[in-house]
Structure formats: structure tokens, C-alpha cells
Amino acid sequence: MFHASHHLTPVKATNTEFEAEVVVVNDVAQSLCPLQIVLDRVILTSTGVLLGCWQVHTISL
């Protein structure tokens, strides 16, 4: 998922954009092996970029 915005001039995603992202993520998730995803840390850079850093592990069945 990707949505460009900045803390000084926020750009909100529309409901249509949000729902389209959810559909795409669900479609991809159905075709991948099971994953365990954990938010590891959130970083705010000096330029205002907010990063979510995730740990992703495959789950053996």
C-alpha cells in the first residue's frame, strides 16, 4: 500500500482509494504462503517521512 502525503500538507486517501488498496492486498495475500508480520518500529525522519519497519516471517505449514 502506498499513499503520498506530508505532515505540512496532508493528503487524505479517499474511501475509493483505500478500498482499492484493500482489495489488492487481499488478492496478493491469497496467493502467498502464510506470513507472520510484526511492526518492529516507526521512524519519523527529519524531512517528515513516517516509516513503518516490519519483520516478516514465513509460516511453515
TrEMBL record:
Q: What is the recorded name of this protein?
A: Uncharacterized protein
Q: Which species is listed as the source?
A: Platanthera guangdongensis
